[in-house]
Amino acid sequence: MKPSLTFIALTAAVTFGVGIAQAAEQCAAGKTLEAGKLTIATGNPAYFPWVIDDAPESGKGFEAAVAYAVADRMGFDADHVNWVRASFDESIQPGAKSFDVNMQQFSITPDRDKVVDFSAPYYTSAMAVLTTKPIVEAGAKPTLDSLKKLKWGAHATTTAVPMLVGLVDPESDPMLYNDNADVSAALQAGQIDAALFDLPTALFLAAVTVNDGVVLGQFPAERSTNPDQFGMLMEEGSPLKPCIDEAINALREDGTLAKLENSWLAESTGVPVIK
Q: In the chain, at which residue ranges do the beta strands (DSSP E only) sit?
């Protein structure tokens, strides 16, 4: 009996999938700190929404979920992923590392790239609106019409200023400050109603620095000017970089990164997209 076309198609698909997995494993073979395992570092502690409950091994949180997706794409199942802790400042210094890759919201910059390697970006940071609970209770909404009416502040030398003027186009001129600390203080003192920050910074300031802080909404990353891009950090000259890049690019192309971003950075944080 001749095999059906459906059987042939399924067999080909399975064979193709196995071929991809084998190619990924071959790419990483002999290039990790521990044979057959991928060692991934995070912060100590690691914070929401990047890692939930400071437990990266749970796979919960955006960076924890991305880490396991990348590992799986490279042929490492969850039992073959090791987690270690490393400080941010220590990790961006030159020299040997105690990890294969490190995920701590490392922005890819030319200066850092001189002493460590970065993967292809796994996250492009959106810009978000930081305000306070009294402003929201007074009627501020995540819409452009509502945002135009607010009194804005911004760090004078950041990309937030041209975006604020060009995209929000507030009715009154924004107040400019020397640094983000001054912007936060002005928001806390009621001198301004709102400010633009990248989403991770806005989430941190709302939770830790600004009393009654609220992240009102976020602009899609593609509407930002020169947004921060986060990459996995590796030792300079790491032979794993091509393997990591291939995995991240594949996850971007098949929509996995977008799904994880929506799940952990939109739904879990409750930050709506500004319309």
A: 38-42, 81-85, 101-102, 116-118, 123-124, 127-132, 152-155, 175-177, 194-198, 213-219, 229-230, 233-235
